[in-house]
Amino acid sequence: MRVHGFDTEGGYRIVFPDPARFVEPAGVFLVAEAEGRAVGCGGIRMLDASRAEVKHLYLRDEVRGRGWGRLLLAELEERARRLGASESVLDTNATLEAAGSLYRSSGYDEVEPYNDNPNANLWFAKAL
């Protein structure tokens, strides 16, 4: 079985977060649409009063490399600011090279792990 590019037999652990963590004021979840069709999504959840975590940023293949990820990430950061966050954090896996490039070029710096996500091996943070 493959999930978002990961071979689940190779150790990827599917995790289903509590949807309530992505509803204001705890967070928000956005769906990007093109011509009435969902082409991407992403969410933020507040970890504490000043720190928001970006989660589940995903784009369909046909819109990748066209700036949609940067737009979606920027909107998630703006929503985090509105919820009171002064810092955005996220985790990813080094095999997702395009994601790492997006985060770095959007001002995120690598940081020490802030969680125990078994699927992550890179952690990032950015001052908002």
Automatic annotation (TrEMBL):
SUPFAM superfamilies: Acyl-CoA N-acyltransferases (Nat). Gene3D superfamilies: 3.40.630.30. One of its GO terms (molecular function) is acyltransferase activity, transferring groups other than amino-acyl groups. Transmembrane segments: none annotated. InterPro entries: Acyl_CoA_acyltransferase, Bact_Acetyltransf, GNAT_dom. The keyword Acyltransferase applies. It comes from the Bacteria. This is GNAT family N-acetyltransferase. The lineage of its organism: Bacteria, Bacillati, Actinomycetota, Actinomycetes, Micrococcales.
